[in-house]
Amino acid sequence: MGELLTLVVIGVGTYAMRAAFLVTARRQPPALVARLLPHIGPAVLAAITLPALIAPRGSISIADTVPALLAAATAAVAWRRIGSLPVALFGGMALWWLASWALSTL
Amino acid sequence: MSTTPWGAGAALSVLGRGARDSVAVAVAYLPFGLALGATLGSSHLPALLAWSTSPLLVGGAAQLLAVQLLSAGASGVVVVLAALIVNARMLLYGAALAPHAAAWSARWRWLGAYLLADPVYALAAARFSMPDGGGSARHRLLYYLGVGVALWTAWLAMTGAGVLLAGVLPTSLHLELAAPLTFLLLLLPTLTHRASYGAAVTGGIVAVAASGLPLGLGLLVGAGAGIAVGTILTGRHG
Fold this sequence. Notes:
- The complex is a heterodimer.
- Chain A is mostly helical.
- Chain A is 80% helix and 0% strand.
- Chain A is extended and about 55 Å long.
- Helices cover 74% and strands 0% of the residues of chain B.
- Chain B has 2 domains: 8-171, no CATH class; 191-238.
- The chains are: A mainly alpha, B mainly alpha.
- Chains A and B meet through α1, α2, α3, α4 and α5 of A and α1, α3, α4, α5 and α6 of B.
């Protein structure tokens, strides 16, 4: 079945990318590479987060973007103050639900 | 490799720490996992096939993209290309963790590679960048495997539950924001100094500007720009 084959090919390809550097790991990477490594996490995670955050339903609009940014700010503050991922996530979600509900009843 | 004997007490405390960290992340992932599972379950693909992306791909963004494209009748080549581009960040995660994993045996690195996902990278990178480097190589491996297996299991269970709840979860729950908020919470702990803020701000803004690119290439363009700016900022400091 073609669809399963497609998914298996993606799975194998993804595994190869996961393994490529991990399996050939060296204790001392080349100096230039070593300088790049610390910035991978922040750069990649922000590149995933920001586009999805400002267009949570696929396009930028006041009705979606403003509540999403408020929810993100709430989650960030909650995480900095309390240090708990679940509290921060559900705090942000609660604000998103509240803002979405408020906007839909206006 | 260090020759210190395996301290059972220390090993248990590493595992306990991994378990606590995993539970917090898994709970935070719950809305995203359920929502993704429900989306998979309501696609045109058979539910079990759609869910098989969880063990095959182990990454929500690529799973969503692959199933949506297949469901819309896209050609296999396009689907493979798009999903692999979205997952190309795993290359970068692997490179970032590799120096910390160099002392692990090859067998564990092959297994560790399968478990490498966004939250596993985020937790491991945070722990391995602590002043003690996350402890001995064995303790780092123990933490990594503990977190990896726990979050892998949780992901399969959550997305499975979401598939089963596909018609039941009310759309009024509005879980759209669960994924970006979850990733925001993985991002925040990585912002430890000026260069990391520079990398994140650049990565985010460039990804938004490039979000019109096909096949999800905007993510890679943004990530590349962010890494470059972070590196330049570090160079100026030191």
